[in-house]
Every structure is written in C-alpha cells, then in structure tokens.
Design brief:
Helix content of chain A: 10-25%
Number of strands of chain A: 6
Number of domains of chain A: 1
Number of helices of chain A: 2
Strand order of the largest sheet of chain B: 3-2-1-4
Largest sheet of chain A: 4 strands, antiparallel
Shape of chain B: elongated
Distance between the termini of chain B: 32 Å
Order of helices and strands of chain A: EHEEEEHE
Strand order of the largest sheet of chain A: 2-5-1-6
Radius of gyration of chain A: 17 Å
Helix content of chain B: 55-70%
Strand content of chain B: 5-15%
Number of domains of chain B: 4
Structural class of chain B: alpha/beta
Oligomer: heterodimer
Shape of chain A: globular
Chain lengths: 112, 601
C-alpha cells in the first residue's frame, strides 16, 4: 500500500476529485494548506497596503491506495491538476505499513 | 400557541401525554428509590421500616417531577447529626449501586443537614437544586426545614448570589449561543433554553423580581416537550437541536420540520426576552441605590432627540413624544445605539402600537437615521432585536418576517438567517472607512441574504428585493442598483477565488467586468469579508482570505489599468507577455458564472 499525497492549486480541486472518483477512488483526506515552491510568494497590494502572500494557498489531498493502483492514481491527479503554469504543485508517494478501518477493525487492503 | 389538531395534523404524542410521561418516569424512580432505601435500611439495621433521621431527596428536575427520557437522576441522601456518617454512607451505597447497575445517570451525594445548608451557601447550583427539593423516601420531616433554611438564605443573600448566577449564565450563553438564533442550539444550555427557565424560577424565589408566571411556565414546559421528543427520537441524552434530527422530532410531535424549528426558536426568543427583562430589573437592584443627589431630584431624563430621552440605563419616549411621528422609532433606535444602552421595552411597545408608516420613498432624514442605526456596530443587535420582538422592524422591512428565526440550510453557519444578516451588518460597520459609500455598504450587508425568504437562488432573487428596499428607503436609483448588484454578487469573490484559476488573466478580467469599478469592488470585498466573518471563523481563514484578497488585488489592477506592471514570475501576478484582455468588451453576457455557494452564505 502507498500513501499518495498531492499539493495542487485550489481551483483544480473539483476536477481532481471528479477524476479520482471516475477512477474508482472513493475517499481521501483534503486539507487547506499553504506553501511555496519555485513560484515563491510575493507581496500584493490591497486597499493601498501591502500584505505578504509568501505562503500561497493550496489544497493538499491524501489517499491511501493499493500498490497496483499507484501509477494510475498519480497519473489521474497529475493530468487533472495540470495547468502548465508555475505553481501547479507536487505529487509524492510513500509506503504505508498498515491501515485499520476504525469502524470495523478491518486491516490493510480490506480497509481501503 | 400552536395547535397541531387545529392544523389538521395528528400528533403522535401530545403535550399532555409528554407531561404525564415525565411525571410517570419520576413516579417510577420514586418507587424504585423507596424500595432500595427500605431494603438498604433493612440490610444495615435489620429492620423493615426505619430510616429515622435519613431521607432520600430528589432535587433539580427530578424534584420537579420533570424527568425526560435521559435526564440525570439528582438524588441526595440527607441525614441529621444523630446518624453515624458511616451508616449513612453504607445505606447510600446500597441505594446507588443498583441504580448504576441499571445504567441510570445518577447525580448523587450524601450530606448531613448542616453540610447541605453549607453546600447551598457555597454553590448556587446546590441552592437552586434545593429550591425544588422533594423527599422521596425515609424521614420526610428532615427535608422541609432544610429547604426552608436554604430558601431563606437564598432570599437573604440574593444580591450576592444573583451576581454569581448572572455571571454563570453569561458564560453559558457565550459557550452555547441563543436558542433562538444559534444554527445548532442546545435546548437546555442555550440562552432562552431550559436552564434559563429554571434560572427564572430561582430569580422569582428571591422576591426581588416578578415575571409573568403563566407565560414563563408555558415556555418552559413547551421546551420540555421538545426536549423529550428529541430524546425519544434519537435515543440519546444530547440536547443539541440539530437540523438532521428536526424532521423526525417534528413527526413525533405532529409538526412540519420547518414549523417545529420556528416554534422552538420562538419559544427560546420569548424566553430570552422574559429573561432579559428580569435580569435588567436584577441589575438595577444589584447596582444598589442611586446617589442621594439623584434620588432627591428624581429620575434624570436626558433629552436625546425629539421625543426621545435617556433615563438611567435606558432610552425611553418622553411624555410629550409625538407617537404618530413615523421617524420616532428610528430616532429611538439611533439614540439607544449611540448611547450604548437598551431601548426600554415599554417604549418599544408604545412605539409599535402607534407607529405610523413612513411615506415611500422615505425622506432623506429617515434614510440617514436607518443608516446610522445599521452602522452602529455591535450595539445594533440588541436594539434591533427589541424592536423586532415588538413588531417595529416588520413595519420598516416587511421582507424580514420571511427570514426571521429561519435556520440556515448550510451547516457552516453559526446563526439563523436573520441573525447572520445582522452580524454581517455589524462586521461591515468595521469596514466603513474602506469604502467610498458606507451607507450603501451597510444596507447591502444587512440585505445580502434577504432572498433566503423566498424560493430560488437567494442571490438572484434577493438582488431585486434589495434594490426595491433601498429605493423604498429613499436611496437614489443608482445607489439602489449598487445595493442590488452587491447582493447579487456577494458570493462572487469567494466562489471565483476558490474555484477558478486566479492566475489566469481572464479570471480577474471577468470579475472586473461584473464589478465595473473600484468603488464597487471595495464594497464587494467588504461585504465578502463581513459575510464570511459572520458565518464562522473558518469562512475567513488565512487560507481563504489569501485567495480572496489575492483575487481582489488582481481585479483592482485590472480596473485601475495596472495589471501589466505585475511580476511575470509571481504566483498571482499578471504575466507581462500576456496581452490584457479587453474586459469592457465582454459585457454582461461574456461571463457566465455558476455561482454555487461555498458556504451558502
């Protein structure tokens, strides 16, 4: 099993969710996140006063998938989240030792 | 008072039956406790009948024989000084354990009579519980003297005890909100809820204040009915009156879901109003006697405006007030918010009884008074509430009746629709200096959800309503149109910021095309923030604010023609090599938005 984590642009969240749903991913964790990469941040001016947006608003989504599904899930996220511009985000994959479904006590693949 | 039978609906359980069930549960527990007590005495002392000097006492709601399905069983084993405390403890254990085995929620204690009196002197909750004390088993003669002593002490020390009760009530309402206006109220803990009803009984017991007893008891028992139905339906002891359980509770009581929600909130509203009146009297008493100079010269009536004066801590109508003057209510309202005091209920009722309708459109003086009232900040809410309770608001704004006490369809809201609109207005009043037309801003903030009282998308149907109201209130047609536009697009910025690519030059250009000019953008930004902050803290998180303010800055750049100056590498900048779209040529039809509510705000 793998944990797929993606940080994407907020406006791409709906598209990514729909694409993942179409690909059979039923559930995930979504967080409003902030950060920066190559795009850096910058200072905006609002009502004459500058405010720092060095941390850019992003959506972070996490989904645990079976090893066999990793490639297609990553591909689905990447395709749906892509605008081709700076700040499109990142997707990374890390191994997961075990998963337990709290309600039933099912474990690992049965709990996905 | 709602009558289900008259409304053609058959209640599954009617109020009389619910009251009987409450008494029945209490009676059943009485029987159980008597048996356990007798067996305990027999087990400890070896005699069948005894317990002289010991008694089981029901306190609180159980003492009043008002046991809901999941009420705690508040019981004290009281004994006099002749009883060995070890024996009393042993008897108590024999009573408590079978109750715990039956999973009964027991709130128990063992005290001798002096400890009981001392505990009541130290903790107002013990004292108020003892006011409803009822002997259940054992030596009944033990209980009455103690209750009388506690009651006498409660009356004797009322001033200090009520200060304590008042503080606890304020803290409770801060935690649980108001039954009338919280999105998810607590039937017991919220202001105007069951605990307030019991508190009123303890206020009356002091003899310092009096209240309309019949109405107070009607409100309290009606809320008990709703609470019982909630417990019956959910099978849980929670008193949270959440939207998902209301339909089932309503069926149980023979109401429609919306009807029960309104009925319950109205009970809470009336109860809160009765409480406010009682506590105002208590506050006067707690404040102590006025200085001798004031008493010698009688009440100090300080003129505020024509027919309106300040009398101590209230705004009142003067004896010579022209009650036919249609602006009198507005002057009284502005007087109250500017002086930071309450509007006298008596005066508000007098105004409501005689208020003449303003001509349409309103004269500029009336419009200015309304704007001053709306721009007054947090002082607006209690004064508006008082006038609404007395029926004045509806005379100014008939559309208000459709949204009054209406629960929001969205779970993110912390208030009902009407209170949310007022809170948005309060928030907007903090941003008056950010806009060129504060008057337009506060009116649009107040009216931004007025469309929720009718069918259809509330932004779409609310816009013409708001424009018509602004015209009626005497705004120029262009300003009224701006009010309508702000109401129509009050969800535009958060929706676009979170669902469209704000890096895309067309996004800002399209928003700019809708907004039209910087002044309107500033007002829309102020309403967006006010709406979000009035909704809940998360609706204006740093994350959301970053997105929305980023979009606003970009739209501003378009409207000011400065978009090309942005850094091409900046996240939210305008790429220098991309030609600015001609947003003016897009027109209204060039930008079709699917504005779904991110928070149904």
């Amino acid at each position: 099993m793998k944990l797929v984590t993606a940080v994407i642009k907020p406006h791409k969240w709906e598209e990514v969710r729909e694409a993942l749903a179409a690909a059979g991913v039923a559930g995930m964790t979504v967080t409003e996140a902030s950060g920066y990469g190559q795009q850096k941040g910058h200072t905006e001016v609002y009502r004459g006063a500058g405010y720092d947006v060095s941390l850019v608003p992003k959506i972070r989504l996490e989904v645990v998938v079976d090893d066999a599904d990793v490639e297609s899930v990553v591909s689905t996220i990447t395709t749906a989240a892509q605008t081709g511009k700076i700040g499109d985000g990142k997707v990374w994959v890390i191994p997961v030792d075990s998963v337990v479904r709290v309600r039933t006590g099912e474990t690992d693949e049965a709990a996905l | 008072m709602y009558d289900a039978a008259r409304a053609g609906k058959v209640a599954i359980v009617n109020p009389e039956e619910l009251a009987q069930r409450r008494r029945g549960r209490a009676g059943e527990m009485d029987g159980l406790l008597r048996d356990l007590f007798d067996e305990a005495i027999k087990g400890q002392l070896g005699i069948r009948h005894g317990g002289m000097g010991m008694a089981l006492v029901a306190v609180g709601g159980y003492g009043r024989q008002e046991l809901s399905p999941f009420s705690d069983l508040d019981v004290v084993l009281m004994h006099d000084s002749s009883v060995d405390p070890a024996l009393a403890d042993a008897v108590a254990q024999r009573v408590w354990y079978p109750l715990w085995d039956r999973k009964i929620n027991l709130d128990n204690s063992v005290r001798d009579t002096q400890q009981m009196i001392d505990a009541a002197a130290q903790d107002y909750r013990v004292a108020t519980g003892m006011l409803d004390a009822r002997p259940v088993a054992g030596d009944f003669n033990l209980v009455l003297p103690v209750r009388s002593l506690v009651l006498a002490a409660w009356r004797r020390n009322a001033k200090s005890r009520l200060a304590e009760v008042r503080q606890a009530r304020l803290e409770r309402i801060e935690r649980s909100g108001w039954l009338s206006h919280a999105a998810v109220p607590d039937l017991k803990e919220s202001g105007g809820g069951l605990r307030d009803g019991v508190t009123m009984r303890s206020l009356v017991a002091t003899w310092l204040v009096d209240i309309p007893h019949a109405e107070s008891e009607y409100l309290r028992t009606s809320l008990l009915d709703v609470r019982d139905a909630l417990h019956e339906v959910t099978g849980k002891r929670s008193d949270r009156f959440s939207p998902e359980v209301i339909p089932e509770v309503a069926r149980f009581l023979g109401y429609g879901a919306e009807e029960l929600d309104l009925h319950t909130r109205h009970l809470g509203w009336r109860s809160a109003h009765l409480n406010a009146l009682a506590w105002r009297k208590v506050d006067d008493i707690l404040a102590g006697p006025k200085p001798r100079t004031q008493r010698r010269s009688g009440p100090q009536l300080i003129p505020i405006s024509a027919g309106v004066a300040k009398l101590e801590d209230e705004i009142v109508l003067t004896a010579d007030a022209d009650v036919k003057d249609p602006e009198l209510a507005l002057r009284a309202a502005v007087g109250a918010v500017e002086e930071g005091v309450a509007l006298s209920t008596t005066s508000a009722r007098r105004i409501a009884g005689t208020l003449a309708l303003l001509p349409e459109p309103w004269p500029s003086s009336a419009r200015r008074l309304m704007v001053d009232f709306l721009a007054s900040g947090s002082a607006l809410v209690p004064v508006w509430d008082e006038l609404d309770y007395c029926g004045v608001v509806e005379r100014w704004l008939p559309e208000w009746s459709a949204i009054r006490l209406r629960g929001s369809s969205s779970p993110v809201h912390r208030f009902t629709v009407d209170r949310h609109m007022l809170e948005a207005c309060v928030e907007a009043s903090k941003r008056l200096r950010d806009v060129s037309r504060p008057d337009v801003l506060v009116v649009a903030a107040l009216l931004h959800d007025i469309g929720k009282g009718v069918e259809g998308d509330h932004s779409e149907v609310g816009a013409p309503m708001a424009e018509a109201i602004a015209l009626r209130w005497g705004f120029e047609p262009a300003d009224a149109a701006t009010v309508g536009l702000l109401v129509r697009w009050h969800l535009l910025l958060p929706t676009i910021a979170t669902r469209r690519d704000i890096e895309d030059p067309e996004t800002a250009a399209n928003v700019a095309a809708v907004v039209g000019d910087v002044d309107t953008l500033d007002m829309l930004a102020a309403i967006t923030e006010s709406d979000a902050r009035a909704t809940n803290a998360a609706a204006w998180s740093t994350w959301r604010a970053g997105l929305i303010l980023g979009l606003v800055a970009k739209v501003r750049a378009v409207l000011e023609g400065a978009a090309h100056e942005q850094d091409p590498l900046a996240y939210e900048g305008w790429p220098a090599h991309v030609e600015m779209p001609d947003y003016e040529s897009l027109g209204a039809d060039g930008f079709i938005l699917q504005v779904e509510t991110h928070h149904a705000g």
